Automatic annotation (TrEMBL), chain A:
Gene Ontology molecular function: ABC-type transporter activity
Gene3D superfamilies in UniProt: abc type-2 transporter like domain
Membrane topology: Multi-pass membrane protein
GO CC aspect terms: plasma membrane
UniProt superkingdom: Bacteria
Protein name per Swiss-Prot or TrEMBL: ABC transporter permease
ABC-2 type transporter transmembrane domain residues: 28-373
Record keyword Transmembrane present: yes
Transmembrane spans: 27-45, 193-216, 237-258, 270-292, 299-319, 361-379
InterPro entries linked: ABC-2_transporter_component, ABC2_TM
Subcellular location: Cell membrane
Automatic annotation (TrEMBL), chain B:
GO cellular component, one term: plasma membrane
Spans through the membrane: 16-38, 180-207, 228-253, 259-283, 290-309, 347-368
Native organism: Vreelandella azerica
Alphabetized GO MF terms: ABC-type transporter activity
Keyword terms: Cell membrane, Membrane, Transmembrane, Transmembrane helix
Membrane topology, as annotated: Multi-pass membrane protein
Location in or out of the cell: Cell membrane
Boundaries of every ABC-2 type transporter transmembrane domain copy: 17-359
Name of the molecule in the record: ABC transporter permease
InterPro entries: ABC-2_transporter_component, ABC2_TM
Length: 407, 382
């Protein structure tokens, strides 16, 4: 009979078994290596231009005066829009909007120039295609810029003609000015907005699939009675191995790929490392808990696929968390990705110190305890059940029960 | 042993997970997203304030900003230092700083300048706040401008006309209330529906191949697959219609054009996604890896449809990848039919594109493995 291994040997054997579980499983390797590299390239792909460019608009000019032409030139000169068509009628303009040839419309009323110079209020009609909000926002911003510039110019001319003192004109034209400045994402770029949050989500979701399916397959092998390291060694080693692998990928994602995409980042490497350590440990325990709960490896992938979009829109970066119904806000905090995304964004994008992330850290530690405890509970009940089954299986094969099965 | 029927109904009966994905999850997810965006547009977003003037005018100005439904200015900070720390923690989404001498400069008509820093990392909320602040500032300015001119002896109508000589009237076409709920739910749900279709199809096909081997000839095989998939296709198509019904009941979605084109488009969409799922399973012959490939292929579909970031501003590669997903063409159809009420000519292109996805089915059916074994080392018996 073989001698029982000494504790260091047992630990080493268990570690080797864990490594083998990960690195000999093609499905897991496909997700960790292939998936993580592929997603890092794929997800930022739509946003390479980062800021939407000039959107095409149509202009219907009922006035055909010098001032109207000036307004059209001003609109065309804004970075948000370009005048692409000059339809003669509303019907023609609507057709252009319907087949996506233009996304906005400017209507200049007749007598526009005369009314402006006579000091009568005139209306300019803008319309934007609100099927696409970003396009709409840009069209409206561009048209408003042009109209405001024109309005200010005419006010200044009118005030000067009335003989007002030049020093007071700024106050009359714009009594209060508000300068809006973007903080943290200086270009207001889409890459800087989406990628830092989605990268955290990708790391989270692939870790769930990989660690979850490794756990399910390990349980299946234990159920068949194949040799395996004791669970009190195997589970902590599995968490450690996955956390180490994911720390390497975190360096690749938050280091190399952030650099590649030119994403501004502020956290010190140590703060980022500490928070990553907590985040991956929590996520890994969540994955193992799912693995202890689910019977088949593909079900983790199913859960990950179905929950990805809900996580994106409840994590607070795409839609303000303040506007979520309270029950949904609290419920989604049970998924480590949400406090993770909020913490990583505050730390690395907004530049908050680690010490100010008390809320996120507390939630992640709480989830660690929750899923860690849940995992231990599930594994214990399953081990007891296996022991019971083993007791049934061992009696002599000629027993009545065994014979009944053979028939 | 009694032979079990291997059709789609049986697949649904035997697999509670499949039943969930195809039957009760789709309406539940639609309801969840409708609840998620229940506020319609962002409301009462937290804005911090640093008032360095403390005059009647500065307080009136801040009250005016607070009156905007998008903003909630309930976070006063003693200095910019505390304010910016709160902005960094994400406690507030913007910080407005009113300069000292604000009231005096306003009275003297020398145009005081306040500054707003908005969180552009949270781009949607940040931009929304910036535009709400600009609008609120504009209307406060107009009121103040009228008051200043009245003080200078203008008559009221003259003062009003002089304060705003060119008035923009802005119309949001196709979504008059600018409802984010309408905009986002009607684009997120088709992407999620597509994911449910692809997952349900892979699970159903795998179940069939694990139960018994497929017949060899193309015709016999097609018949077996038809018996298997037709019930599921029907249910998933009905789920699409239920989704549209929920848009209309809860979000006030009113299609501009003929809805029948969309109903037909949805049937094509279901078949297109199922065809791609069959192709993927025939390539890897393993359900776990097939699902991973489906994830790689369709999980990012929402980003590539161009509803949030316009497709016209994507590079060639991104547009090409987007074209490989049925959802991109379905959304094009949905916008054309429901929003634009576009002509048949415009609808033909996305409908034809969805049809093209059925071509791989002819290759995938013979390429499917005859049978797939359940590996006992990969499943925990219950």
């Amino acid at each position: 009979m073989k001698r029982a291994p000494t504790p260091p040997q047992a630990l080493w054997q268990a570690f080797q078994a864990e490594l083998a579980n990960i690195f000999t499983d093609r499905a897991v390797l496909l997700v960790i290596v292939g998936g993580l590299l592929f997603y890092a390239v794929l997800y930022p792909l739509p946003y390479q231009k980062s800021v939407p460019g000039e959107q095409a608009i149509a202009v219907i000019d009922h006035d055909r005066t010098h001032l109207a032409r000036k307004l059209i030139r001003m609109a065309d000169a804004t970075p948000q829009i370009r005048v692409a068509a000059r339809p003669d009628s509303m019907l023609e303009a609507e057709a252009l909007l319907a087949n996506n040839a233009v996304h906005g419309l400017l209507v200049i009323p007749s007598n526009f120039e005369r009314d402006v110079y006579r000091g009568r209020p005139t209306s300019l009609s803008f319309a934007g295609d609100a099927s696409y909000f970003l396009i709409y926002g840009n069209v409206v911003e561009g048209l408003l810029t042009a109209a405001t510039t024109l309005s200010v110019e005419t006010q200044i001319v009118a005030s000067l003609m009335k003989g007002e003192s030049a020093a007071q004109i700024p106050g009359q034209v714009m009594p209060v000015r508000l300068i809006s400045k973007p903080a943290f994402n200086p270009t207001s770029g889409y890459v800087n907005y989406i990628v830092p949050a989605v990268f955290v989500l990708i790391l989270h979701q692939t870790l769930l699939i990989a660690a979850g399916s490794v756990t399910i397959k390990d349980r299946a092998r234990r159920f068949l009675g194949r040799p395996a390291a004791p669970l009190h060694l195997a589970l902590p080693l599995r968490v450690m191995t996955f956390v180490l692998i994911y720390l390497l990928f975190a360096m690749l994602y938050f280091g190399f790929f952030f650099q590649l995409y030119g994403i501004p980042h502020q956290a010190s490497p140590w703060a980022l490392l500490l928070f990553s350590l907590l985040f991956f440990t929590t996520t890994c325990l969540f994955a193992l808990w799912l693995g202890a709960l689910l019977p088949r490896p593909e079900l983790v992938t199913v859960i990950v696929l179905v929950t990805s979009l809900p996580i994106v829109f409840t994590a607070g970066f795409a839609w303000p968390a303040e506007n979520l119904p309270a029950w949904l806000d609290y419920l989604t905090l049970l998924i480590p990705a949400k406090p993770g995304i909020q913490g990583f964004l505050a730390l690395n994008q907004l530049g908050a110190p680690l010490a100010s992330l008390g809320r996120e850290v507390a939630i992640l530690v709480g989830l660690c305890l929750l899923y860690g405890g849940g995992l231990i509970y599930l594994m214990r009940t399953q081990a007891r059940r296996r022991a019971r089954n083993a007791a049934y299986d061992h009696p002599a094969p000629s027993s009545a029960w065994g014979a009944a099965v053979d028939e | 042993m009694k032979p079990i029927r291997l059709d789609g109904w049986q697949a649904l009966r035997c697999q509670p997970w499949l039943l969930a994905l195809a039957v009760w999850l789709p309406p539940l997810l639609t309801l969840m997203f409708i609840a998620l965006f229940a506020s319609g547009t962002p409301k009462s977003l937290p804005v911090g304030v640093v008032d360095l003037d403390h005059s009647t005018e500065s307080r009136a100005y801040l009250r005016h900003l607070d009156a905007s439904p998008a903003l909630a200015l309930y976070h006063p900070y003693p200095s910019a230092y505390e304010g910016s720390a709160a902005l960094q923690r994400g406690d507030i989404l913007a910080l407005v700083i009113v300069p000292p001498e604000f009231g005096r400069e306003l009275r003297l008509s020398i145009s005081p300048e306040s500054v707003a820093f908005y969180n552009s990392q949270y781009l949607l909320a940040g931009k929304f706040i910036a535009s709400a602040l600009t609008q609120a500032n504009f209307s406060f300015s107009a009121k103040a401008g009228v008051a200043l001119r009245l003080g200078r002896g203008y008559s009221l109508p003259d003062a009003i006309a002089a304060a705003a000589p060119v008035r923009p009237q802005i119309t949001a076409l196709y979504n008059a209330g600018m409802s984010y709920a309408l905009f986002l739910v009607t684009s997120i749900m088709p992407a999620l529906w597509q994911i449910l279709i692809v997952v349900a199809t892979v699970l159903t096909l795998s179940w069939r191949l694990e139960q018994a081997s497929l017949p060899a000839g193309f015709a016999a095989r097609s018949r077996a697959l038809w018996q298997l998939m037709a019930p599921l296709s029907l249910i998933l198509w009905l789920q699409g219609l239920i989704m549209l019904g929920m848009f209309s009941v809860f979000l006030g979605w009113r299609p501009e054009g003929n809805i029948l084109w969309l109903v037909a488009g949805m049937a094509l969409m279901v078949m297109a996604v199922q065809s791609m799922a069959t192709l993927i399973l025939s390539l890897v012959a393993n359900k776990v890896r097939a699902l991973s490939l489906c994830a790689a292929y369709l999980a990012p579909a929402f980003a590539f449809m161009g509803m949030t970031f316009p497709r016209g501003d994507m590079n060639m590669l991104a547009r090409w990848w987007g074209n490989l997903m049925p959802s991109t063409h379905y959304m094009e159809l949905q916008v054309a039919v429901a929003d634009h009420g576009a002509s048949l000519q415009t609808l033909a292109l996305p409908l034809a594109a969805l049809l093209v996805f059925l071509v791989p089915l002819a290759l995938a059916i013979p390429a499917l493995p005859q049978q797939m074994a359940i590996d006992p080392a990969e499943e925990v018996p219950s």
